[in-house]
Amino acid sequence: MSEGIAVPIDFYSEFDSPKTIASIAEAIRAGGHRVHLVEADRALPTWFLTHQVDLVFNIAEGTHGQHRESHIPAVLEALGVPFTGSNSLTLALALDKTKTKQLLASEGVPTPAWQLFHTPGDPLDPGLRFPLIIKPNREGSAKGISKDSVVHNESALRAQVRRIRQLYHQEALAEEFIEGTELTVGVLGNDDAQALPILGIDFSACARSGESFYSWKMKEYQGNEEMGLTPTFHCPARLDARTTAAVQRVALQAHQALRCCELSRTDIRLSREGVPCVLEINPLPGLDPLESNFPVMTNAAGIAYPVLINRLIDLAVTRYREAAHIQEPTGSLAAAAHAVEQSGQLAGSRTAP
Known about the structure:
Layout: H1 18-30, E1 33-39, H2 44-50, E2 55-59, H3 71-79, H4 88-95, H5 97-106, E3 114-117, E4 132-136, E5 150-151, H6 154-168, E6 172-176, E7 180-188, E8 194-195, E9 199-202, H7 216-220, E10 232-234, H8 241-257, E11 263-271, E12 276-282, H9 293-300, H10 305-322, E13 333-337, E14 345-350
Parallel strand pairs: 1-13, 2-13
Antiparallel strand pairs: 1-14, 2-14, 3-6, 4-5, 4-6, 7-8, 7-9, 7-11, 9-10, 11-12, 13-14
């Protein structure tokens, strides 16, 4: 970022920490692979033109542009380099909240009513019911979302749209705020994908903070008692068997609707009427072994962290082999990743057993 240009306080929130990258690389090596850490910068295409690997373990979020999470996968696709996770189309669609909701609605997956605002002066759809939550249309990690994002009147709505236009330079999504239980559901696999144990988040202990949902501050300072940001987590979530099955079924439908590969994590609000409403789907969820939600759910499923990382590799290798795109791997892995202090990718290859 150029010196002197102001950026939002949450600008770096999506990037993985060096600790996360090191944990992934260690798990890959424990699976018998050779690992090369590759920066996800402008030099990346040249690196892959001069180095041969069997597979890239992709966790790169991208740094700019409307479809930034799809940039590295698009380069790898163009170069014919296999990688873990979803393809460039899925990642581009999932980053656009409105496009995701349109696709989910077309597939019959329940999602809250919404309207996309290009400017603060756009006419308000009379069918929308307050309260609404106002979000940047193309951000992850709850960027741009605060307790003030939940609005109860048109004046506050337009003020939030104006703020998003000024700070994030993009459209704002207005979505009916669902009063209910916050859930997130991981999905692991491809054709035989399975939903993981549901993670339920209880924000009742956070009342004095004013944060009753996953805002950016909640994610960034989670566990801070002084700020009152101390949600309670339950995995498996405290739901009856019928509700659990319904929520997991919706997460699987979302995973399949966007054609996610290997893994995804779907954020859901269970309404007071018992309807699981999909808020958004993340095909590139965080993989910090201690702090990210996806490993919490796989751990609850009895899948240890190193096993999870290597299962993602095996799933990707099987997917490419079945598509007749690669042969039995014989070389090394490349791992691609972004970090606040080390932007890049984890690229690696797998050694023969």
